[in-house]
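Weekly structure sync, notes
Attendees: PL (lead), two postdocs, one rotation student
Agenda item 3: pending single-chain targets
PL asked that the sequence for the first pending target be pasted directly into the notes so everyone works from the same version. It is reproduced below exactly as submitted, 236 residues in total.
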Amino acid sequence: MEIPAGAQQDFSKSLLLSVSILALWVPPGSWAALRIQKIPEQPQTNQDLLLSVQGIPDTFQDFNWYLGEETYGGTMLFTYIPGLLKPQRDGSAMKQRDIIGFPNGSMLLCHAQPTDSGTYQVAVTINPAWTMRAKTEVQVAEKPKELPITNLPVSAGIVAAIIIGSLAIGSLCVGSIAYLLVTRGWRAQSHRMTATEKPEVGSSHHAVSDVPTSRKPSWSPLQESCGLIPLQPCPF
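Predicted structure, written out during the meeting:
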């Protein structure tokens, strides 16, 4: 059974259209797998911010980073082509920013400022018919401003309390010093009195001990009965 020529042409056109659609179609799963991780999640002023791309394929042609809700030449930060000697090419939105691209699709924003806040988008070109995209919101927090030191008005009551407290502390210090001086003087006087009394006691003891004592001979009645009469000294 032969297929009519007109049917063959219609089939060929349908097949070509299907192939074209498949070539231009971006797999939904690949889009969902691509995401951006912020490190740190809430950057502070003058802090380095890393936007790490997760889920990027091992092989790709190039990737572009944008700052803004739309992706075009005016919002492009840089283009990164791994095969070149200098793979990074800065775009119009780079301005004075210090941004470094990496072969894995990530970018590093050095010394982030509050003006760097916004929507960051990355477009990874896998092949001419397949581009993966992801975006994230970045908010760089400002450092808290130091409040100026103001001299608060001092009321008369506070001044009086300060004066009375100062006088009380001064009186307490003077009283403590006087007490220490009196106590030290009393202790010194007591020590001197004790030192002067001790030699008197010792000298009186020696004086008493140095006085000669005359011991009279004791005579018993037995000696008298035996005629033992002591010789009397000659009066001459």
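Discussion points:
- Residues 26-138 form a domain with the Immunoglobulin-like fold (CATH 2.60.40.10).
- The helical segments are 5-24, 28-33, 156-210, 221-225.
Action: rotation student to compare against the earlier draft before next sync.
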